[in-house]
Input
Amino acid sequence: MPNGVCTMNSNFSQLIKDGRYIGMSLDGVDGDTVWQLYVFMQRLRLLENAIAALYSEQQMRCPVHFCDGQEAISAGLALAIRDSDHLFSHHRTHGFYLAKCREFKPLIDEIYGRISGASGGVAGSQDISYCEMNFHGGAILAGSIGIAAGVARAMQIKNIPALAFAGFGDGAVDEGVFWETVNYAALQKLPLVLVCENNGYSAFSPQNKRQAVMDISAKVRAFGMQAHSFFGNDAVESHRVISQAVGAVRRGEGPVFLEGHTFRWSGHVGPEGDDQYQYRSMQELAFWKDNCPIKLLEEKMLEEGLVKQQAIDDLVRQIGQELDQAFAEAKQSPFPEPVDWHAMNYATQTPKADELLAEEKSSGFDQNQDLAIPGPY
Ligand SMILES: Cc1ncc(C[n+]2csc(CCOP(=O)(O)OP(=O)(O)O)c2C)c(N)n1
Ligand SMILES: [Mg+2]
Output
């Protein structure tokens, strides 16, 4: 790693030579899987490029946080997560959304504020949830991590064979709730997967100005939780690390923390860019653009004869057509009726709570058992 170019944990410096990542290997990963990783990243990149290009039309009804440059982590996640699992996202949702929900349309419609959007058009990019797909947004920074742990605990008590995932950034690690969750999840051996896209910045603050110890995995291990860090622009490594770790959580071996080191190319929010504030160096950005996750994988696939350039060109054209259609449809879709925000956010009665408690009693649930959550609630 060239000095001063990047705030990334130095664990990966031996994998960088003359500013290029040299660690990528396809060993043990079949061609179909490699292609799936590539397709996922291209879909995500082209989706975000289209959002950025159309944002100035001022028809999108929400702020958008782009994850361009970070695609390899959600690509690895997409291959490991199942429909029955729950995924809780922070504000930079597009990669996590696509990993869980796959389809463009519910996200694009949501960004345009239309009733056909994943959240009926009232949430937008940053707060999108798609309940039918067990995808939950709505908590910036670290809020979703504790909620994911609660869902993991509920599934553990009810013997539901699924996992809870939380997706977030390095800024979430500055928050108390992250460490409370790590402690509690390790203690209870929760079926929980914590996925950190460490892009080195929390808005405009670099990690080395916020944390005395940069190795987050080492700190997490001190709490008794498994933790793995990897070079987050290597999609194949991301797939390897995430699938192996998720497999262990599915076997009941307890929760895991996964950290991919990466970089966002865009500004913190919106397509306009924020490099005029000079909080990061252009040298650092250039290093990460040279090591674009899509370019790294594409070069490897072509070099190893896994794919022909024609197949890549066809894929890009197909995705473009799919996006053109989805954007055209979104603009035609109706807006929701005005909603009662108060009624959406607060329960005015608690019949559901009573119903749930009655259900627990009839299922033989006893607060005094070992598994019971200590009251009062
Ligand atoms: C408790 C709290 N503090 C600060 C903010 C403002 N804020 C929103 S996103 C963000 C940066 C988050 O950085 P990170 O978690 O690394 O995710 P990234 O945006 O880099 O993907 C900040 C500081 C907030 N929403 N909530
Ligand atoms: Mg960050």
Remarks:
- The chain has one domain: 25-335.
- The CA atoms of residues 70 and 299 lie 17 Å apart.
- The chain has a mean pLDDT of 92.
